[in-house]
Design goal:
By secondary structure, this protein is of the alpha/beta class. It has a single domain, classed as Ribonuclease Z/Hydroxyacylglutathione hydrolase-like (Metallo-beta-lactamase, Chain A, 4-Layer Sandwich), CATH 3.60.15. The chain contains nine helices and 14 strands. It has a six-stranded mixed sheet, covered by helices on one side. Strand 3, helix 1 and strand 4 form a beta-alpha-beta unit. Helix 5 runs antiparallel to helix 6. The protein binds zinc ion and fe (iii) ion.
């Protein structure tokens, strides 16, 4: 049974997602209840589950109100049970999860937060603040080696996997990417599309793993042009990744 996915804009630049299969409907990372309720009403869908990729308030702020109003079950990282408001079902890589009859893979992707997870179902990955379009999350509760391992886990997904991120950071991420790899024609082409989309107020979601591998500097630490621009031709992958993350922090 195919998934139906509805993008819900929240706060300034957050994304929540309604994911519907059969009679079940989950919301991924509800920042706030209002826009989620409006989207549910517009579609005529009833909320059954709330999925959280990590504990930050801009991803969980709607949990309690939506759980109360719809009797929806909150599903989130077992490792962060104490920090997920209203958590009903803690999940990890071993447990996985079942969304009705649909098998959902849970990937543990720590570093932005130590409990961060990604939900992967039917060729779609909800990556929260771990992987962004042309970017990655800040290292609040982990280090460069931990984030590199987490991103490497996501990179093992098939190229066709659709990527749904926690924020619309794409244009700024792309501007940074272009400073490191101006000779990447896929990146330059993508930036043209992103600028045109954003000028009209459009969303850049979903991305795909193949597109990220081709344009996201955080996944391209082995590229000669990036390494040359950093003066790190001979450094290890984690060192290059850490330097890119450090530069982006102050971009
Ligand atoms: Zn976050
Ligand atoms: Fe966030």
């Amino acid at each position: 049974m195919p998934l139906e996915i509805e993008i819900v804009r929240c706060l300034t630049d957050n994304y929540a997602y309604l994911v519907r299969i059969g009679e079940l409907c989950a919301v991924v990372d509800p920042s706030e209840p209002g826009p989620v309720k409006a989207a549910l009403a517009a579609k005529g869908w009833r909320l059954s589950h709330i999925l959280n990729t990590h504990h930050h308030l801009d991803h969980t702020g709607g949990n309690i109100a939506l759980r109360q109003e719809f009797g929806a079950q909150v599903v989130g990282p077992a490792k962060d049970a104490s920090r997920i408001p209203g958590l009903d079902i803690g999940v990890d890589e071993k447990s996985g999860w079942a969304f009705g009859g649909l098998k959902v893979d849970i990937l543990e992707v720590p570093a932005h937060t130590r409990g961060a997870i990604a939900f992967v179902m039917e060729g779609c990955a909800f990556t929260g603040d771990t992987l962004f379009a042309m970017g990655c999350g800040r290292l609040f509760e982990g280090d460069a080696a931990m984030m590199w391992a987490s991103l490497s886990k996501l990179m093992a997904l098939p190229d066709a996997t659709k990527i749904y991120c926690g924020h619309e950071y794409t244009e700024n991420n792309g501007r940074f990417a272009c400073t490191l790899e101006p000779g990447n024609s896929a990146l330059v082409a993508r930036m043209g599309e992103v600028r045109a989309l954003r000028a009209k107020g459009g969303t850049t979601m979903a991305s795909s793993m193949g597109l990220e591998k081709a344009t996201n500097p955080f996944l391209r630490v082995g590229e000669a042009e990036i390494r040359k621009n950093l003066g790190m031709e001979k450094a290890g992958d984690v060192a290059v990744f850490g330097e890119i993350r450090k530069r982006k922090d102050s971009f």
